[in-house]
Every structure is written in C-alpha cells, then in structure tokens.
Amino acid sequence: MRSTTREDGAETTEPRTVVEQVLYGEADPRLRATWRVLFSLAVFAGLFVLGETILSATEVPPVITELKLPYLAAVAGAVVVAVRLGDRSASGVGFGVNVAWLRDLAAGVGLGVIFQCAVTVVWVGTGGLTVTDTTVRGVATGPSSLALVTSVSLFGVLVTAVWEEFVFRSLLIRNATEGLAARSVPRTGALGGAIVLSALAFGLPHALGVAAEYTNPAFGALQAVISVSYFVAAYAATGSLALPIGIHFASNAWAILVVGRASSPYPKLFAVERTVAGTIDTLLILLPGVLLIALVLWWARLTGHTGMSVTDTYRRIVESS
C-alpha cells in the first residue's frame, strides 16, 4: 500500500512506514493474505467463544445446543470479514448462492450418499461393521420428538459442514495461494503449498480423532488423507463451496443418523459397532474415496467446470471475485 503526492507536476511515492510494510504488500492495496486469514480466524474464534458463553450462562436445553448456533454466528462473521478484507463478493469466497450453487449443493449431497453407501458396503464386506440394533430412537421419546431431534441434528450437521469447508477450503487455500503467489512462488507451488497447509490444518485433528476412536493410527491417517483429497477436489474443480459442503453434510449425516454408533444418543436407522481389523481393511477404505473423486470430476465436467490444470484451478479459486 503506497501513498503518492504530486510535486511540480510530477508524482512521487512516499516511503512506506514499517507498519504499512508489515500489513500490506508492494502493489496490492489489501491487507497481506496472512493478516486476512488471521483476522478472519480471530473473528470466528471470538464470536464462537461469545456464543458459547451466552449459551452456557442461559442454560439452554440440549436441543438448542445441537443447533451449533455459536458456530453459525462465527462463520457468518468470518465470511463478512473475509469479503471485506479480500475485496471480494460472497461468490468470491465460495458462497455465490444461486440456482447453479444450489444445484451443486444437491449434487454434493447425492455424491456423499453414494460415497457413504460404498463405504458401508466395504465395511460390511470386511466384517468391520456389526449391526446391533435397528430404528433406534436415541433420546427421542415419540414421533414428534423424533422429528424434532432429527431436524435439529441435520441442521447442526449442516452448520458443521459450512464452517469447516469455509475455514479449511475457502479461507486457507485461497488466501495461502494468493500470499505465496505474491511472493513470486510459481502457481503450481502456490497451489500445492496452500493445499498442504489446508490438509494439515484439517487432516491432523481428524486423523487423531479417528485414530483414537479405532485405536488404529494408520487408519486415522489414511482416512484423513482420503477426506482431504475429495474435499479439495470438489473445491478446486468448481471454485465454489457448494459441492464440498453437500458431500460433507451427507457424509456426516449418514455416519450419525443412518449407521450411527450404538453408543450415540442420536436417532439412527442402524446402530452399529465399527472396527478396523488389519492392513487389508484399512486399504480397502481407499476404494470409495477414489470413486468419490471420480464422481466429483465427472460432475464438474458435466456442469461446465472444464479444465483441472494449474491455470484453470488458480483462476477458479483466486481470480474469481
């Protein structure tokens, strides 16, 4: 960010202060990408903590807690900050909601269901999934209660999908790519570095969680790699968050409400126990992930998002406003 003055008809550039050099790049009037990410995350964290504090102080019933309202407020605030600091539209940060966006969202839900069906088939085939009960009501006590709990659970799952995809895909990948490119890193390296950053930020916590759940570190790591791959593919192929949000929503909803863990309080069609026996079981989980990535690329091509070259992907993620 440079300031200019005119002396004797000639334009001169005033030297930038240290603060300006830290906050702004040489030619871009916007804040540096690093600060755009940090400020957006700070707003996200602040609103989330504020929301959690309010809910704790008011002692709301569990059904309200499951709506994930602090996360919803946090992501809304972070999106506003990202739009303002990045000098972009909502579409530029992945939320250009229109007919095409809603179509991609619905397609993502469909692809997510296909993916989870394939995962379930593989898991049953390897003996890693055992059904212990069916049509379990969980904490629901009657038809109306069941409908309410299911609806609230689905809304909470959607909120989780929205905030995770915005933070780990749109915010991190787009800004990290821009930041690296501004430092003269080639587009291939900028995109690759941004994807690695997103993968680590998203994948490590998920890998540790899955590894702890199944006491299988290899399975946790592989599961994280697979999920990062298809979410990134969905975002990179479309330049929008609609498709990855749809996939994320369907995958989580399936794992909670269709084939949920027996110990889970949520209603579910099948109560199951899952185990991961060995190397073959672990590697077979790759197959549904490969299928999903293929379906994502097919859908992107079908809907006119042609080209998965570095230039095409960079244009979709970074240059769209």
UniProtKB/TrEMBL annotation:
Residues 151-253 form the CAAX prenyl protease 2/Lysostaphin resistance protein A-like domain. GO terms for biological process: CAAX-box protein maturation; proteolysis. Pfam families: Rce1-like (PF02517). The chain crosses the membrane at residues 37-57, 69-85, 105-126, 146-168, 189-212, 218-238, 245-263, 283-300. GO terms for molecular function: endopeptidase activity; metallopeptidase activity. The keyword Membrane applies. Keywords: Hydrolase, Membrane, Metalloprotease, Protease, Transmembrane, Transmembrane helix. This is CPBP family intramembrane metalloprotease. It comes from Halobellus ruber.
